[in-house]
Automatic annotation (TrEMBL):
<protein>
    <recommendedName>
        <fullName>DUF4352 domain-containing protein</fullName>
    </recommendedName>
</protein>
<feature type="region of interest" description="Disordered">
    <location>
        <begin position="34"/>
        <end position="66"/>
    </location>
</feature>
Amino acid sequence: MLAGVAGLVVGGVGATAVTLAVVAGSELFADAAAEPRPAGPVPDEAWDGHGDDQVAGEDGGTFDDPWALEGEVYTDEWSVLLELPHEATAEILAHNDVNVAPAEGMEYWIVPVDAMYVGPSSTVTAHGSIDLWFVDRDGTEYDEGCGDVPDSLVGTGLIGTDDSARGNVCLEVPAGADGLWVLAVDDYMPVHLSTDVAITES
């Protein structure tokens, strides 16, 4: 997994403290044709900062009921939009000679990530707060990277309030990527996202 997130949980601002001011109509996500959805409650804390919005774990976003991958997901400090993943084995191998081929039966897949930060800090990184991994239909998780990645999210550096970052995350996944992509933002509940689920028109 990327640095900064181990799995389930957010340190810092509580879910009820600040309401996110970024919506699907913002400049960063002007092309997103889906209702933004909160990533979910901090464990053991009630979520009420976003009214009647769908919340991960309560209204989908789970392994058995994933959300559409191209829908915006947000917390009180981040608004995140994933673009469609694509197979990128040849691209990764051509990018840098230090990169090695994936294991037999595996492929490198790139997921472009757009992220806007609306929290109070001036020294955060998108790759430190946003984590992404893959889970196949049997529930096996894959979080190995691909080596040196072109336009990597890791290389976007420090940002502050109302700044945005865009970059690629690359994972080694089973050939064909038949499964779900899992997005975690800080320590909020991870959300399961599928390219097979239709987005909800805003």
